[in-house]
Amino acid sequence: MTINGVTSSLSALYLLFLSLSLLTRVALSAPAQDDHLFKNQHIMWKSLRATDRLSRSRRLESWERNTGGASNRRPTKKYGTMDSYGGMKLSMSRSLIASNATLTSATEGNALIAFRNSMQTDPTGALANWTVENIPSYCSIWRGVSCNPTGNVIGIDLPELELNGTITPMIGDLVHLEFLNLSYNHFWGPIPSELTRCQNLSGLDLSTNSLNGELPELFSLPKLELLYLAYNNNLSGPLPEFKRCESLTDVWMDSTNISGAIPSSLRNCQNLVLLSLATTNLNGSIPVSLGELHKLVQLWLGYNKLTGHIPSELGLLKNLKVLDLGSNNLEGSIPPSLGNCSSLTALFLDTNNLEGSIPPSLANCSSLEVLYLRLNNLSGIIPEEFGNMTGLILLYLDSNHLSGTIPASLGNLTKLQWLDLTTNNLTGSIPQELGGCLSLKHISLADNNLTGGIPRFLGNFSSLVNLFLGYNSFIDNAVAISILSQCSKLETLGLQRNKLYGSLQFDFFTDFPSLKYFSVAGNMLTGGIPSSFSSGVPSSLIIVDFRRNKFTGELPGQVDSTYLPSLRFLYFSDNQLEGSIPPWIGNLKSLQVLDLSRNRLTGPIIPQDFHNLSGFKVQPESEDSSIGEAGVLYLYTFNPLASSLNVSFNYAIYKADTRMDLSSNALQGGIPQEIADLVGMKYLNLSNNNFDGEIWSGIQNLKALETLDLSRNNLSGRIPSTISSSVNRYNVSFNNLDGPIPSGGQFDTFTDISIYLPGNPRLCGAIIHRPCDKVPDTQIFHVSDFISIPGFGIGVAGGFCTVLVTILVWAPARLFVFRPAGKRKEPSAYGLFKFRFY
Ligand SMILES: *[C@@H]1O[C@H](CO)[C@@H](O)[C@H](O)[C@H]1NC(C)=O
Ligand SMILES: *[C@@H]1O[C@H](CO)[C@@H](O)[C@H](O)[C@H]1NC(C)=O
Ligand SMILES: *[C@@H]1O[C@H](CO)[C@@H](O)[C@H](O)[C@H]1NC(C)=O
Ligand SMILES: *[C@@H]1O[C@H](CO)[C@@H](O)[C@H](O)[C@H]1NC(C)=O
Ligand SMILES: *[C@@H]1O[C@H](CO)[C@@H](O)[C@H](O)[C@H]1NC(C)=O
Ligand SMILES: *[C@@H]1O[C@H](CO)[C@@H](O)[C@H](O)[C@H]1NC(C)=O
Ligand SMILES: *[C@@H]1O[C@H](CO)[C@@H](O)[C@H](O)[C@H]1NC(C)=O
Ligand SMILES: *[C@@H]1O[C@H](CO)[C@@H](O)[C@H](O)[C@H]1NC(C)=O
Ligand SMILES: *[C@@H]1O[C@H](CO)[C@@H](O)[C@H](O)[C@H]1NC(C)=O
Ligand SMILES: *[C@@H]1O[C@H](CO)[C@@H](O)[C@H](O)[C@H]1NC(C)=O
Ligand SMILES: *[C@@H]1O[C@H](CO)[C@@H](O)[C@H](O)[C@H]1NC(C)=O
Ligand SMILES: *[C@@H]1O[C@H](CO)[C@@H](O)[C@H](O)[C@H]1NC(C)=O
Description:
The structure is a single chain. The protein is built from 10 helices and 50 strands. It holds the Pfam family LRR_1.
């Protein structure tokens, strides 16, 4: 790590904040299986990102667990470093004080006892020596207490001790107190305003506790240098005026509930180096007076409710390295003056309502490594000058309205690892010069209007992990896809909704050893499905999507499913595939979504051993039940101060509802009873085939089932009288069922007769106005007549009418179901409706 100059003592803090902040900048970059889905994913992304703190902190927790715990997300700065500010001297060793044990004050002793007495639990016994008898020796044997040579308490240092209690107001009696560190405990209750009596207080760290109430007038403490109150989620009220803060250097209050505006009295804090107020409830505008804080190195105001414009005065901050205004409600344009912040290494203005064009002057920030402008309303072109920012490691401009072409000058960005231009209006082809960005790991150009071919130079990108080129108009032969196999680290390859043609080689997947996500959905690919799912080496594939192409022939027959241990999503729908369903599909242990619909598959289902589909036996916990299908998301953290951007890249795939869609083929035979073993199944669509036989009653075992569509087959016999109470979409119309329509239970919730009729001439029941004692014994309808009418609406004889039935109305509708995202920016979340549908 490069640590430089004045900020050396801050660098750790800096890293930490960056990673913290970015950690939750959950970057979803993957357009997945189809348009609806893509939209849903963005919404999902939104809801994760602009979310309540709860889910944020959940993410943090899980991250911490993976990366060695809380210590990582914490400034490593110690009080000892305060010497450099001319502040307290920790050199007063405890042994010195110990020998002066009798020099203690009764007032202070009482205050300490009161502190101890306001503790509910002390599981580590840290305060065991804090007893009345021991008062005379509080300077020596009381853990965490330090005194000055005259026996006055100047420090209490009790972090990470699982202490549970309140902070006694009597702490105000410790008038000589210079530092108080109670971080990483379980303190609750308010911060006592009596603390302001400790006029020599210079370091106060109460972070990561459960304190609540409002902030006392801490900024009236003349010597306060460090104030850490972060991660006290219930700490509320406004920020006090910054009355006497000339000593203040570091303020860290992230993840608190402080609200109201940022006082412009902040200008009094001329020595402020770090101001971190991210993830709070602050609103109002960004005070112009911030531009007067010339020593400021880091300014974190992300994840708040700030409104108004970005003050151009921020351009006066020559020492500023990090400017984070992301995830607010800022509007107006990006002030060109920010280009004067010559020290800037990271700029986050994402997730606001910023508009206008991107000022080319930003390219003057020659130290910039991270430029994060995604999710705004920015328009105009990507400035040619950006090619001058040769230190750039991450460039995220996605989800704006940028137009024009991708500037060739970006090819000068040899350090660039992360390039995301998704969801803009970019046109033209990918410039050949981009081949110079040999460090690229992540490229997403999806959802633009890009044309031309898939550049062959991509094959030289040996670090490439993710490539998303979907939702464009790339025209190329499938051979171009094969060239990407030279990128041996490639995990995600999204090429959906382009104009790719030609056929994939039969051993296609053998060439992609790390591939997890593969989608060519919505192209014009022809020929057979590659048969190389298994090459005798366990494959990393999780999602494979061949939907909406012109693939022909049979599904590969000879595949050993044990080599596909991770395959969860398998899509073949809307092709011209023939033959029967090969048995190996029934052996895919992790499979959760199988979509073979709208092909020409024949024969009976099934894979004898359908019961080996273990993935269908458990209903995965959906992170968000509105996500109907799989999605991909990335969690990343990074540290722009490190000599190389150390991105930790977590690949997460949304768990989706278990779905099986075999509809609109020519499958025949009975519905295999084995399906009843798939107790986690939520969606089962066998409609529009030639299935015959009865609907076995075992279907009631599918307790998680929500959608059951058996319509348009030749099923006969009676409708089983029990069905899971979770079923809310049900359809058996266009069959030859007979007998009474069951009543009671879930059936009483089905009121739409179109789920029974037309077809089924011998069904009876009140709901279809056909009393069971008058069942006609001859067929009124010829089912086949209706099957031949696509998109039908039918008038019916017999004194009743059927309503218009829309074929499979719910299947697509389901995909559109989404939940409004988090607390803000709903409109722009729905702006993602711009996705085109088939
Ligand atoms: C307080 O203690 C914690 C834990 O030891 C430490 O990480 C932190 O830096 C300390 N606070 C200050 C302001 O030094
Ligand atoms: C309590 O004091 C004794 C010396 O009297 C010392 O050895 C011990 O470590 C102290 N305990 C704590 C928790 O500080
Ligand atoms: C006790 O403190 C005084 C100053 O208050 C100092 O002069 C004296 O040397 C100390 N005693 C010992 C034993 O260190
Ligand atoms: C505060 O610190 C100053 C200078 O270090 C000292 O002179 C003064 O006595 C201290 N005040 C208290 C109440 O300890
Ligand atoms: C403190 O302890 C009490 C009782 O043991 C418990 O109910 C409470 O949740 C704890 N508080 C915190 C902040 O951990
Ligand atoms: C914050 O307050 C809410 C309700 O007042 C409570 O449910 C929650 O547990 C508190 N959180 C913490 C961390 O104390
Ligand atoms: C946060 O503060 C707002 C008022 O600004 C209040 O409505 C809300 O309940 C507080 N939340 C918590 C968790 O304390
Ligand atoms: C800021 O929030 C406070 C409550 O926390 C509210 O009273 C005030 O109107 C808000 N101000 C703006 C400008 O939204
Ligand atoms: C920045 O880029 C522009 C256009 O790409 C170029 O004309 C100019 O010389 C560059 N400036 C520097 C300082 O490199
Ligand atoms: C792209 O441009 C078209 C027409 O100019 C416009 O309708 C559309 O909203 C734009 N899309 C984006 C993402 O800006
Ligand atoms: C940057 O890219 C442009 C266009 O590709 C090129 O003309 C120029 O020479 C490059 N500049 C540097 C410093 O490499
Ligand atoms: C991009 O393509 C879409 C349709 O493919 C079209 O509606 C839109 O106008 C195009 N935008 C531009 C800027 O060309």
